[in-house]
Amino acid sequence: xxxxxxxxxxxxxxxxxxxxxxxxxxxxxxxxxxxxxxxxxxxxxxxxxxxxxxxxxxxxxxxxxxxxxxxxxxxxxxxxxxxxxxxxxxxxxxxxxxxxxxxxxxxxxxxxxxxxxxxxxxxxxxxxxxxxxxxxxxxxxxxxxxxxxxxxxxxxxxxxxxxxxxxxxxxxxxxxxxxxxxxxxxxxxxxxxxxxxxxxxxxxxxxxxxxxxxxxxxxxxxxx
Length: 224
Description:
Blueprint: H1 14-47, H2 52-67, H3 70-84, H4 91-116, H5 120-128, H6 133-163, H7 175-185, H8 193-223
């Protein structure tokens, strides 16, 4: 049987350290998601308001976040806040700020798209039945919007989880950083350590994202 290099994970506390790194990545993702979803919903609703100034500001924010790579945003928040404003913030907090900004922009655009995708006759039908604007929005528009948002939101969440691997560039000891440390420590004794360790990282990322996919399907069935 070929040496896959997985055995290095069972030396000492290597595998436990890898799981701890996964928890750090998961914690950053979950906190960012917890802030991004409500802020994104508010942003998406604002983006549907027919006001030129609001449309310009929200579009400027959205395009800036989309164009700027997440790694560059991490460097800006982590390094330049220290140099310019003399504020020291940890790598984890910098990561949460960046992923919240990114998630809010993406979620806002998803909410905007879901809201404007509701046909006008849905509003007209609700008004014809005697419902006012608030009742129409609460009983007709929101349920249909949520149903459209569930698969898109899960896709965004899984993207955020996978993109947390970038935070190692600002010194956050998450799973990929731990994987690098394990590989470097065992490079001489186990030449194939990189393959085995990264394979396990792939499996762990896959399992976490797959779990969210299962949750998404169950939620979709419930809303249907």
